[in-house]
UniProtKB/TrEMBL annotation:
One of its GO terms (cellular component) is cytosol. GO terms for biological process: ubiquinone biosynthetic process. One of its GO terms (molecular function) is chorismate lyase activity. Pfam families: Chor_lyase. PANTHER family: CHORISMATE PYRUVATE-LYASE (PTHR38683). Gene3D superfamilies: Chorismate lyase-like. InterPro entries: Chorismate--pyruvate_lyase, Chorismate_lyase_/UTRA_dom_sf. Transmembrane segments: none annotated. Keywords: Cytoplasm, Lyase, Pyruvate, Ubiquinone biosynthesis. SUPFAM superfamilies: Chorismate lyase-like. This is Chorismate--pyruvate lyase.
Length: 117
């Protein structure tokens, strides 16, 4: 499989996650969360479909970067892959009404890409 981007340099800031001791510590399970934040934290099923329903005009996914690259040290640790091992990385913007609403990054380890598709 040929990469559309041979040397991907992430344009997304990827914060470390270790400082979140728990969802409660991050305030995500607090029943006092109200309004739009509560709705978006409880979306079940397709998050993209939920975003589409909120658009008044249009929705599209803009591929920012896609290709084989080295995950961040944190991503490699979380995925239990060797540091500096390449993976398929895709970064997209989910845009509603021509505005980027969500920036998303997917990292797929090489071992998940083996075999017949």
């Amino acid at each position: 499989m040929q990469s559309r981007v041979s040397d991907i340099d992430s344009h997304l800031t990827i914060p470390p996650t270790d400082w979140y001791q728990s969802l409660t510590a991050a305030g995500l399970l607090n029943p006092a969360v109200h309004g739009p934040a509560r709705y978006w934290l409880q979306v079940e099923g397709s998050f993209t479909r939920a975003l589409q329903k909120q658009c008044s005009r249009s929705f599209h996914v803009e591929v920012r970067r896609e290709g084989f690259a080295t995950p961040t040290q944190e991503e490699a640790r979380r995925l239990r892959i060797p540091h500096r091992q390449h993976a398929w990385i895709r970064e997209v913007s989910l845009c509603g009404d021509n505005q980027p609403w969500v920036l998303a990054r997917t990292v797929i380890p090489l071992k998940c890409l083996e075999g017949e598709g």
